[in-house]
Structures are given as structure tokens and as C-alpha cells.
Design goal:
- The complex is a heterodimer of chains A (187) and B (238).
- With 187 residues, chain A is an alpha+beta fold.
- Chain A is globular.
- Chain A starts with 6 loop residues before the first helix and ends with a helix.
- Helix content of chain A is 22%, strand content 17%.
- By secondary structure, chain B is an alpha+beta fold.
- Chain B is built from 6 helices and 11 strands.
- In chain B, the strands form 3 sheets. A 7-stranded antiparallel beta sheet of chain B has the order 1-4-5-8-9-10-11, with helices on one face. A two-stranded antiparallel ribbon of chain B has the order 2-3.
- In chain B, strand 2 and strand 3 form a beta hairpin.
- In chain B, helix 1 runs antiparallel to helix 4, helix 4 packs antiparallel against helix 5 and helix 5 packs antiparallel against helix 6.
- The radius of gyration of chain B is 17 Å and the shape is globular.
- Classes of the chains: A alpha+beta (187), B alpha+beta (238).
- At the A-B interface, strand 4, strand 5, strand 6 and helix 4 of A face strand 5, strand 6, strand 7, strand 8 and helix 6 of B.
- Strand 5 of chain A pairs antiparallel with strand 11 of chain B, so a sheet runs across the interface.
């Protein structure tokens, strides 16, 4: 239900998989980053053909023109636009309208897939799996093998107003106090 | 263990609860600290007969064996012929402490030791606990804020108390390129032992976390780039 990566990719991969074709396992360094910043929304570097059925995926890579009804929060098979090979088409990103888009529930016989994508400033800033097949061990296997699952971002400072700190050398309370006062000075 | 321990209990004023938890950690330290000559683990390393090992120690060492198998040998408590289970004991002890609190009917609390955390229920504001991931390059900075309900969060890195994690397959070389690896798991025992092992794997560690059911991870590398698993976002607050 989570697993933020293009749903179509999974479906496509499944087809490839069942056809017995081998595909490369994605590398960790591949910027499959849909999350943030710079990398202008690579929709996963899927070498996959598209899953015909089931429009689930993120805002269509072939963009707006082909998809006039592309309004925020449109729950439907918005992205019919088979996002074949998302990488190539990612350049046309800027045509997206801001908002959250929920794809339809796609049945990938081994489980349902549903995607929500968030667009901000014309770019994909987040892709979330609302549903994700992980019931059968086989589908888990397929997904784990197939997905360019990891995402990347540049780290940046956040508010220090937290209950607890992980990776701490001293307790979070002291930390909050310390940084809080520093911020007060910086204000 | 030589590290600060924090316990916050929201729904009770009973300081005995805290005293009990800290007492438990003291027992754990007395039994498992390799820095104490009279700890059980030190005595084992000095040749204490197996028949004299405590049942708890056997249990913990058994967990270490299992973890070693589950991590392809990356989790290995045997260095230079001596046993040091501290890579597992911390998470185990936090989880045991949390279970004790739970048994006493406490619902909303956290237990933190050396930056590894078990949360339960909600914080004083009736919200999920917020857990900050420390910037490995700057201890005064948080680079991610998570919302955690009943999970464990552990961070392995070279920056906490020196390099206390190493790659058993390449002794002597620190894991390359990874500054810190934070793992969220269903409890701190799971999160901590796998964070320890995955950190020793270097950049492959995050892949291991992705492949392992029930774990999500956030790795910060030498370039200040974070790589995180597919379900990690679910915990991210800011």
C-alpha cells in the first residue's frame, strides 16, 4: 500500500516477468527519485513495456494534452496514457497541473495497485502507493526484484522540534533546548 | 553501555516505573558490557565454562546467531575470538524495557538509549511521537522528522561513539561511503540489529533493508545524499 513508484511499471514488469524475459535489477544509484528537488521527476527508469490495462500510475508522462480531464484528485483511470518507457518522456514534465492525483485501483491479478501522485510547481514531488500487492510471497518476490524502489534526495535541515532524536550522542531534550536557543538568536 | 538513556512515560507519574527501567538497563550493562571485567560476557571471553552461562545469555547469543544467518554473516559478534553482542543487546534491551512498561499497563511512552528508540502510543500532545534523524555531518541538525507510533527506530553510523560497526568480511576497513543508516522496524530489536548489519554492508545496506520485510530505511552517504526505501515516506513528517 505504500511503495512509491510507478504502478504501471510493476504491471509491466509482471508481464515481462511472466514472459520469462530477464530484466536488470535496478541499481541503487539510479536516481529513481520521484520525491524531491532537482531531478526533474524521473518516473523510474523502467525499461518496461506498459501494462495495458489498469491506469494507475502517476500523472501521465505523455502529459496534459492527451489527458484533458486531468484535474486534481481525479479518481479514475486518468492515466490511460500508457506511460511506456517513462524515462524518455519525462522531459515534458512541466505541463502538469498542481494537485494530488489518485489513480484508479488496478488489479494486477496478484493484488491491487493504486497510486497517488502529488504535483507541485509543475513537477512530481511525490508518488505514493495507496495500495500495493504484498500478500502472496510470489508477488512480493516479483516486486522486490523488479522495482527501482529506492528514492533519493539531498538532505536538508529540518526543525529541531522533535520528541526524540535517532543517532543521538546526547538526549533529545538537551538537543531541543540547545538548538531552540540557537534558533532564537538566529531569528 | 556508556550511553545516555531516556525514558518518557506520558500516562503515569509513578517514578518507580522509570527506576525499574533504569535498573534493568544497569543489569544489562553489568551482564553484557565488554568494558567490565566482571561482566558475564567478559567472563565468557575469559573462558567461563558454557555450563555456567546464564539462560538469558544463551538466549541472547542464540539471537545473535540467528541474526548472523539472516544477514548473510554481516552481523557477527565474534571479533578476534571474543564475543561482543552489544550490536544486538542495545536494541534487545530497549525492547525488553518497553515490554516491561507495557506489562505495567503503560500505553504512551518511549525508551531511548544511545539514539535507538522504541515508541509506544502517543506523546504528551496526543500525537504520534516525532523522531528526528540527526545529520551525520552536523550533530546540531535534524535532517528528517518522522512520526512514529509503535515502532522502533535505530540509527547506525560512524559518528556515534566512534566507529563501532565494522564489516566482518573486510576487517579493518570502515564501511565505505555511508555516513548513517536509520532503520524503522516493527520494534527496536528488529530495527537495531538490522541497522547494525546493513550498515556494515556499505551502500548495499539500503537494498538489504528494502528487501527485508517489515523494515524501512534512510541512508545518508558521503555526498549528503539520502537514499530511502519505498515505504519510508509513510513515516516522514517533515
Amino acid at each position: 500500500m505504500k511503495k512509491p513508484i510507478i504502478g504501471i511499471f510493476i504491471l509491466g514488469t509482471l508481464i515481462v516477468y511472466s514472459a520469462g524475459i530477464r530484466h536488470e535489477q535496478p541499481k541503487i544509484s539510479a536516481p529513481s527519485s520521484l520525491t524531491t528537488n532537482d531531478s526533474s521527476t524521473t518516473a523510474g527508469d523502467s525499461p518496461t513495456p506498459t501494462a495495458s490495462s489498469s491506469g494507475s500510475a502517476a500523472p501521465p508522462t505523455n502529459t496534459s494534452s492527451s489527458n484533458p480531464s486531468n484535474s486534481p484528485a481525479a479518481t479514475s483511470s486518468t492515466s490511460k496514457t500508457n506511460s511506456t518507457r517513462s524515462t524518455s518522456s519525462t522531459k515534458s514534465v512541466s505541463g502538469y497541473k498542481d494537485g494530488s492525483y489518485t489513480g484508479s485501483v488496478a488489479d494486477a491479478y496478484y493484488g491491487n495497485v493504486q497510486i497517488k501522485a502529488t504535483i507541485s510547481g509543475g513537477k512530481i514531488t511525490g508518488v505514493t502507493f495507496l495500495q500495493y500487492p504484498h500478500t502472496h510471497s510470489t508477488s512480493v518476490y516479483i516486486n522486490q526484484q523488479a522495482m527501482p524502489y529506492l528514492q533519493q534526495e539531498a538532505i536538508k535541515a529540518q526543525s529541531s522540534n522533535v520528541n526524540i532524536v535517532s543517532g543521538a550522542t546526547y538526549t533529545s531534550q538537551a538537543f531541543i533546548k540547545s538548538l531552540g536557543s540557537a534558533l532564537a538568536q538566529a531569528a | 553501555m556508556g550511553m545516555p538513556i531516556t525514558v518518557e512515560v506520558v500516562d503515569s507519574d509513578d517514578t518507580k516505573l522509570l527506576a525499574d527501567v533504569f535498573g534493568f538497563f544497569r543489569e544489562v550493562d553489568n551482564r553484557y558490557s565488554t568494558y567490565k571485567a566482571d561482566s558475564e560476557i567478559s567472563r565468557i571471553n575469559n573462558g567461563l565454562a558454557k555450563t555456567a552461562w546464564s539462560a538469558e545469555m544463551r538466549g541472547v547469543l542464540h539471537l545473535c546467531d540467528i541474526t548472523k544467518q539472516q544477514t548473510n554473516g554481516y552481523f557477527d559478534i565474534e571479533h578476534d575470538g571474543r564475543l561482543d553482542p552489544s550490536g544486538l543487546v542495545k536494541g534487545w534491551a530497549i525492547w525488553e524495557a518497553a515490554k516491561r512498561l507495557h506489562k505495567r499497563g503503560v500505553q504512551n511512552f518511549y525508551v531511548e538509549a544511545g539514539g535507538d528508540i522504541q515508541t509506544n502510543g502517543k506523546n504528551a500532545e496526543r500525537q504520534p511521537w516525532t523522531v528526528g534523524i540527526r545529520n551525520p555531518f552536523n550533530p546540531d541538525e535534524i535532517v528528517k522528522v518522522l512520526r512514529i507510533r509503535n515502532e522502533g527506530v535505530a540509527t547506525s553510523g560512524t559518528y556515534i561513539r566512534g566507529e563501532h560497526i565494522y564489516n566482518p568480511h573486510q576487517p579493518g576497513t570502515p564501511p565505505a561511503e555511508v555516513q548513517s543508516l536509520t532503520v524503522v522496524g516493527k520494534n527496536i530489536y528488529e530495527a537495531d540489529r538490522f541497522a547494525t548489519a546493513a550498515f556494515a554492508m556499505g551502500k548495499d545496506g539500503i537494498n538489504f533493508i528494502e528487501r527485508t520485510d517489515g523494515l524501512e530505511g534512510y541512508m545518508v552517504d558521503d555526498n549528503g545524499t539520502a537514499t530511502f526505501t519505498s515505504g519510508f515516506q509513510e513515516y516522514v513528517y517533515a
